[in-house]
Design a protein that fits this description.
The structure is a single chain. By secondary structure, the protein is of the alpha/beta class. It is 49% helix and 11% strand. The protein has 15 helices and eight strands. The protein has a four-stranded parallel sheet with strand order 3-2-4-5, with helices on both faces. It has a two-stranded parallel sheet with strand order 1-8. Strands 6-7 form a two-stranded antiparallel sheet. β2, α1 and β3 form a beta-alpha-beta unit. The relative contact order is 0.12. The structure holds zinc ion (ZN). The site of zinc ion has 4 residues, from α11.
Length: 341
């Protein structure tokens, strides 16, 4: 693997087919956080039995705190699975001050390399705590046991660079940027996205190269965002649509897919190379259509019409295209024309 210069938030990493084999023997007494399917796939390969296995129930803080309180003493938390299993592991490791090992089995979200755990308080996303995987285990064979669309969804948190950087530029031009604007960070983030877009075929095929491109992209994003102390080059209005939808519908979504839907709609609102970015999403077969996400037309319409008010009512969200451009019923109608419900 290429050496990434800078702060990646990954203390050590193991990449390769079979990377997870026997890892249980190096962890002392350990707890696994996971879900049913990834656990069934990974368990026979660990080479040791955990002291406990904690399954994801919900990501609501009350559930997590109950699970942390009930967890036995141990040395290490081994998080195996998708975003929720990883976030549960991060939360437990942070609360108890334990070593964290992350082994993503799907790449649908960047949770396995970011420091904070994404939790929910009353169906609202919050990021809490501080963790670094040691090691991050990327076992291509294990990851490829998941349905391909779940791994392809991993491009969502890189595609968001497209709309998020544009939003940051809008904020800077309006004199409303919450952080010192850094053109070099925007340029670096766009380079990550263009390197990702150049690998469309490999990503669609979920080849070693394609999976590696996604993981490396996330780690490179960290080298920008960790020193800066914020994720503005990677998060903007496209994520805000997902926050509104999740609170409205009170259920989580496959992260990369819902972010993809956000990129599709908000790049249009931004007038920001919309066709190009949609072309890439279609080329990699990212499943971002409302039909893929189980979103009904009336819910998406209501969400879009409410989005500016929702963002305006939240002090913690940044200045974006939503702060400047109106979303009218006729805009929504035109924007939804080619989406599948
Ligand atoms: Zn994200």
């Amino acid at each position: 693997m290429t050496v990434i210069e800078g702060q990646t938030n990954v203390r050590s990493a193991r990449f390769g087919a079979g990377a997870i084999d026997g890892i249980g023997q190096e962890l002392g007494r350990f707890i696994v956080t996971t879900m049913e399917v990834p656990w069934r796939l990974a368990q026979p390969r660990l080479g040791a039995q955990p002291a406990a296995v904690i399954f994801v129930e919900t990501m609501e803080i009350e559930t997590l705190d109950r699970q942390v309180a009930g967890a036995p003493q141990c040395d290490t938390v081994l998080a195996i699975g998708g975003g929720q299993a990883i976030d549960l592991g991060k939360y437990l490791a942070w609360k108890r001050g334990l070593r964290l090992v992350t082994a993503p089995t799907i790449l649908s979200v960047d949770a396995f390399v970011t420091p904070a755990a994404g939790i929910r308080r009353g169906h609202r996303v919050e990021y809490v705590g501080q963790t670094s995987p040691d090691p991050l285990v990327i076992d291509y064979d294990l990851i490829r046991t998941a349905p391909p669309e779940l791994n392809i969804a991993g491009v969502g948190d890189l595609l968001s660079i497209h709309t998020a950087c544009f939003d940051w530029e809008i904020a800077e031009r309006a004199g409303k940027s919450e952080y010192p604007f850094r053109a070099e960070d925007v340029a670096k983030a766009r380079a990550i996205l263009s390197d990702t877009m150049a690998k469309a075929d490999a990503i669609r095929a979920c080849s070693d190269d394609g999976l590696h491109t996604i993981v490396e992209g996330y780690m490179r994003v960290n080298t920008i965002c960790l020193p800066a102390g914020h994720y503005r080059v990677e998060e903007g209005s496209e994520h805000y649509l997902f926050y509104e939808l999740e609170e409205r519908l009170k259920r989580p979504f496959l992260h990369g897919s819902i972010v993809g839907l956000g990129v599709r709609l908000l790049s249009r609102l931004q007038d920001n190379r919309h066709a190009e970015v949609v072309g890439f999403m279609d080329a990699v077969a990212l499943r971002y259509h409302p039909a893929d996400l189980g979103i009904r037309p009336e819910d998406l319409i209501a969400s879009l019409l409410n989005l500016r008010q929702y963002v305006g009512g939240r002090r913690d969200l940044w200045y974006t295209v939503l702060s400047e451009r109106d979303i009218s019923p006729s805009w929504v109608e035109a924007a939804l024309v080619n989406l599948k419900f």
